[in-house]
Amino acid sequence: MSEQDDLFRALADPTRRRILDLLAELGPQTVGDLAGHFPELVASGISKHLMALRAADLVTATREGRHQRYALNADAMSRALAPWLAKYESYWSSALSRLRDLA
Questions:
Q1: Could you say which residues of the chain have pLDDT below 50?
Q2: How many CA atoms, within 13 angstroms, populate the side-chain half-sphere of residue 7?
Q3: What angle do CA 20, 17, 86 make, to 5 degrees?
Q4: Residue 41 backbone zone (phi > 0: left; psi -120 to 50: alpha; other: beta)
Q5: Of 13, 41, 93, 101, which has the fewest beta carbons less than 10 angstroms from its beta carbon?
Q6: At what angle do helices 3-11 and 43-55 cross, to 10 degrees?
Q7: Domains of the chain: total
Q8: pLDDT for res 1
Q9: What is the pTM of this model?
Q10: Which domain holds residue 38?
């Protein structure tokens, strides 16, 4: 399985995308901090999502006392997505050029 496959599998879940949004917006958070944003989930549910995000290298964890703080690893996201997006760049450049020609 490729790094891209792991990334897309992790991003397919809306809860995981929301966790990434929160980490980008708020900075490093504990499981308890994140659980406060998901009243429908218990902390163990958040932990499972964080495990999937760590497996895809989308978040990192650092220990602070008894707790771990999770942080967004945007570099890994960029590394995995850049080659995939590059394949489509010529298509979008061509489509935007044609759109400009119509205006």
A1: none
A2: 17
A3: 90
A4: beta
A5: 101
A6: 150
A7: 1
A8: 62
A9: 0.81
A10: 3-102
